[in-house]
Amino acid sequence: MFLGHYAVALGSKRVAPAVSLGTLFAAAAFLDLVWPVLVIAGVERVAVAPGSTAFTPLDFEYYPISHSLLMSAVWGVAFGGVYFLIRRRRLPAIMLGLLVVSHWVLDAVVHRPDLPLTLSGPTRVGLRLWNSVPGTLAVQVPARSPGPTWGSG
Ligand SMILES: [Zn+2]
Question: Domain for residue 151, yes or no?
Fold first, then answer.
């Protein structure tokens, strides 16, 4: 889920207007910011496998440090904790931590069952929305506004 993470970040701006949009986006996308670093470092693995889902060819082979539910909670506590240390604002820090975890929840909707719960457990989670291009587009593409109203003359 790409746009969904940013939509949640935008929506949270109402809850915490003092937090910059960049910080909100970083929190919502944090797991995907960590993941490529770990892939490049050879710690986590992804393969390009056309057809692995209808929407994306990425086969997430191993990514428990960036994308397990357990570690998303750890990353959330770390992100919120660093924010709290810098800004000394408790509620925005908690909200930022929850935003980090929201990434895992939204990913669980779109991914096939490849999201781990823990670092080494066998359980994988995913509701497979990416197996449906129309379903994915319906969720990812924002609804159109009614647009301009044209006068009759
Ligand atoms: Zn992700």
Answer: no
From the first residue on, what is the mean pLDDT of each consecutive set of 10 residues in the chain (153 residues)? Answer: 85 93 97 97 95 85 97 98 97 97 95 96 90 74 55 48
Non-local CB neighbours of 114 within 8 Å, separated by 6+ positions: 59, 60, 61, 124, 126
When divided into structural domains, the chain yields a total of 1
Q: Please list, in sequence order, all residues whose beta carbon lies within 8 angstroms of the beta carbon of residue 35, skipping any fewer than 6 positions away.
A: 44, 63, 66, 67
Ligand 1 centroid from CA 71, angstroms: 12
Give the pairing of strands 115-116 and 124-125.
Answer: antiparallel
What is the whole-number distance in angstroms between the Cα of residue 18 and the centre of ligand 1?
26
**Which domain does 123 fall in, by range?**
3-140
In a domain, 153, yes or no: no
- In a domain, residue 127? The reply is yes
Residue 11 lies in a domain: yes
